[in-house]
Amino acid sequence: MPKVHNFSAGPCILPNEVFQKSAESILNFNNSGLSLIEISHRSKDFVEVMEEARKLVKEILEVPETHDVLFLQGGASLGFLMSAYNLMGTHKTGGYLVTGAWAKKAAKEASFMGNSLIVDSSEDKNFNYIPKDYEIGDNLDYFHVTSNNTIFGTQIKNFYKGNIPLACDMSSDIFSRKIDVKNFDLIYAGAQKNMGPAGTTLYIFNKDILGKSSVPIPTMLDLKTHSDKDSMFNTPPVFAVYASMLTLKWLQNNGGLDSIEKQNEKKADLIYNQIDNSSLFKGTANLEDRSTMNVTFTLENDDLNETFNTMLSDAKINGLKGHRSVGGFRASMYNAMPIESVQLLVDVMKELETKKG
Amino acid sequence: MPKVHNFSAGPCILPNEVFQKSAESILNFNNSGLSLIEISHRSKDFVEVMEEARKLVKEILEVPETHDVLFLQGGASLGFLMSAYNLMGTHKTGGYLVTGAWAKKAAKEASFMGNSLIVDSSEDKNFNYIPKDYEIGDNLDYFHVTSNNTIFGTQIKNFYKGNIPLACDMSSDIFSRKIDVKNFDLIYAGAQKNMGPAGTTLYIFNKDILGKSSVPIPTMLDLKTHSDKDSMFNTPPVFAVYASMLTLKWLQNNGGLDSIEKQNEKKADLIYNQIDNSSLFKGTANLEDRSTMNVTFTLENDDLNETFNTMLSDAKINGLKGHRSVGGFRASMYNAMPIESVQLLVDVMKELETKKG
């Protein structure tokens, strides 16, 4: 059991062996007598790290030969812009499914080089559901979705399948479940949930999109720039890529997506069952759209907040404060979160129920 | 004395205490029981790191109140684009002093939202000098220079002073010498030389430029976005910022720029004197433009390369291979390089001289 139970929404818990090995690498990398962070990124040792990280992504997600994998910088926030630049076609229009704060920000960036069309939005109900009955015209160059909404605790269970190229910000649930990569023209994800520390951003895309944009793309925002140089066009964020590689290796060694998906469902079931059987707690997300990564809930009686917070603190449960736009509580349970920590949280919720329910 | 003498051009040598403290932080940050890379970037502990890093930059460089300091992502390569976006004015033209490969890449990015004008270039002599007798018209929105050219071993000794706003890519010599920040409208620098590990990019700019661009700037490329949020608009590259903060603290504790500038000159003198008094070695850069950071030189007799390389390897001198566009050797001697390592290199050069000179 960890000393502190870290339910932070991101940056967030990572496997303990990632902390151990990445700390070691800073003192003495590969027994070279040099630190990981002082060697040239063009050295054989680091090029191997980058190649291993890309290979692990391909193996774990079963990325088809049609697609390339890159580790870049800028977070999903730069991904909003890059996805629009790289996918903008002859219609000069991107379509967006607005399911949360980040999706809304993504939609804004398309307007810098084209038109941004909101296909559907759940803002009417403070993003507590995933819209499903939308229609997509044939005047779109791409359709952009956000797979998991960290703030609002919702998650897309069935992705769009159709003729319009699909782009997806998968920052907060990539590597948490199986996905069919070939259905996506572009996936991007900030590392700092299931993949590694903050500081690198994963891009997976169909190589067919390269060089096809209808707008001129500045060098660093063009995926072709980075694909042509095997993700080494400029100095990569060395430490973040290395720690991501270690996290991906941990995932692969622990059964990959088959295994982690089952564990994540088990953890989510534990806490959602407690919420649904409680007289004190209430989930905020629509039942069928509930996220396995971020469980958002409130105490129906605000007066109990202080008591609950004290109990959480006594149990060394950390990072449970909900985002200000939803309030209440949020339990983020990424891959590295042990089920024992979730059980402890559920036990504390039960204890409050016994005391005050 | 370090086990390995790391003359790598970047990422490169950093102070030993930075390796020690940053490795510790990954195992147990601030005695929190949590790793630096698993805590929320909005936590009090990390916000303090970011604020301390910004404060140290301001103190060490004596940044005036008119200027702001940010730690962003993307490297200088994204800085090429951001500087053009943020400084483009009514003339829709940026002027560039092309003193090397990076300067040339910087000039290219202005063409995505305006005109890029080459004020002068030293490409005629493979960038072995800094042009000085150029004239700057009054039809420029800004004048962009590269303070130090890592590949070619040249460095600007006297910066332009005039009415045109000055932008500078200072990636490879920031914090190596005193500069007068108020003369620059924008300075940017990838961290991975004198400031820290790869993965974060420093921006220092006159706050007057914010919101004045004549072109629409995508959200993440607009310095105002980040300035308004105290460098925390999106998740920062936590580890890279922390290790940079430690490096800056080391610099401050060791006498700041006054002291480091003298040390850097001493180190540079040592090796340039050896080159100039040698019958075997020849410097490639114009005498008055020689860089104190990157010393580029060749062996006049190519047949000696193998012998010299073996001697370097025996002395555990690492990273001395010159860039392919210059050939020969390059000794990069950033702030953290002890003079003892430079002396050792000079001793090896002397030994070759005795044997073969």
Please explain how this structure is put together.
The structure is a homodimer of 357-residue chains. Chain A starts with a strand and ends with a helix. Chain A is globular, with a radius of gyration of 21 Å. In chain A, the strands form 4 sheets. A 7-stranded mixed beta sheet of chain A has the order 2-10-9-8-5-3-4, with helices on both faces. Chain A folds into 2 domains: 16-253, Aspartate Aminotransferase, domain 2 (3-Layer(aba) Sandwich), CATH 3.40.640.10; 256-356, Aspartate Aminotransferase, domain 1 (Alpha-Beta Complex), CATH 3.90.1150. In chain A, a hairpin with a 4-residue loop joins strand 6 (148-149) and strand 7 (154-155). Chain A has helices spanning 16-27, 44-60, 75-87, 101-109, 223-228, 238-253, 256-276, 305-314, 339-356, and strands at residues 5-6, 67-72, 93-98, 115-121, 142-146, 148-149, 154-155, 166-169, 186-190, 201-206, 281-283, 294-299, 317-318, 329-332. Chain A has 9 helices and 14 strands. Chain A has 357 residues and is α/β, with parallel strands linked by helices. At the A-B interface, helix 1, helix 3, helix 4 and helix 6 of A face helix 1, helix 3, helix 4 and helix 6 of B.
